[in-house]
Amino acid sequence: MSGDSLFSRRRLLQGAGAIWLLSVSPLGFAAAGQVIAVRLWPASAYTRVTLESNRELKYRQFALSNPERVVVDIEGVQLNSVLKGLDKLVRTDDPYIKSARVGQFDPQTVRLVFELRQNVSPHLFALAPVAGFRDRLVMDLYPVNASEVKDPLMALLEEYNSGRLDRQSVARNQGPQPGKAGRDRPIVIMLDPGHGGEDPGAIGKYKTHEKDVVLQIARRLKALIDKEPNMKAYMTRNEDIFIPLSVRVAKARKQRADLFVSIHADAFTDRSAHGSSVFALSTKGATSTAAKYLAQTQNAADLIGGVGKSGDRYLDHTMFDMVQSLTINDSLAFGKAVLNYMGNINRLHKPRVEQAGFAVLKAPDIPSILVETAFISNVNEERKLRTAAFQQKVAQSILKGIRAYFSSEAMLARRG
What we know:
Oligomer: single chain
Strand content: 15-25%
CATH superfamily of the largest domain: Zn-dependent exopeptidases
Number of strands: 14
Radius of gyration: 24 Å
Shape: globular
Number of helices: 15
Distance between the termini: 60 Å
Number of domains: 2
CATH class of the largest domain: Alpha Beta
CATH architecture of the largest domain: 3-Layer(aba) Sandwich
Helix content: 25-40%
Largest sheet: 6 strands, mixed
């Protein structure tokens, strides 16, 4: 079918469509599905298209060639202004989507056509309502043969989507790199800016998105670390992209990281709450109700960001009982070092490292912490989080904590 004929059935059925519309009762109109939002998230690893609606959408997807296109038919909806704006959302720097068109294919079906820049592997799935989102239909466009690309994130995402991302898939990379960290080789640090893409994280009173602030802090911290003669930093994401929690952990293990730092900006219903916090994993329950609640909200990131598969085989295979007590103890020591320096730039919300069952801290062999830099829900701290000066201070504090943690010969030897 040519591009010009994709919507030809719509023209042929216009008369019938008018008769059909007249025969539908007002009750029928009220029950019809309606797309209330369309979002595109282009990134180097994959591009995501999200349709949010007032009920679960039924769809059919297929491909066309010459030119390469992905076609999605949505049943039970009518073309509206939201859908008509789809073409304007496509960015010129999108690596996968060249253009998009939408039309009323027949009286009950809207057709979306995405012309592609390269051969892709589409993944479509539905997401049930969660947090502030209604029903969502998600389409992720991944490059074909991502594992051939020399990018560990793309390879891991391919494994994740095929259901092959489990403990065995990264076993060959398990454990620290050979040689003494900081002496024979660089200390490898994986930085994890929380949230991203469809998952904005917490949002401040002045519409500051947590995902944007923590990405800026992580970039600043990476720049500082890479200037150190004996350190090397990597990032789980360096774009506005959603990365599943298990993929973040797997990437740290694949890079054989010596440390894992997840960076966030806290939020609470009471806007007076303020201060910085540091958290580590717990195998015996949370150290406080607040820590338990925070872990639950952070672990919900996959539901909010959108994971198109049930279960999480990687995390299922690395449950709490596999996390060695030595790793947790190292995480607590690392967290304490960072917390001490965070206290020099901001009031501490709690004076000690707290613990809970954070999914993103579950690497069994990598000391891992989660840093809540400040409360984005607090107006004063939201203002600080938006400034380059405070972001730089946070980055410097975490770096000082890393240095302090590795200042002892025992810690250096342990990562060898």
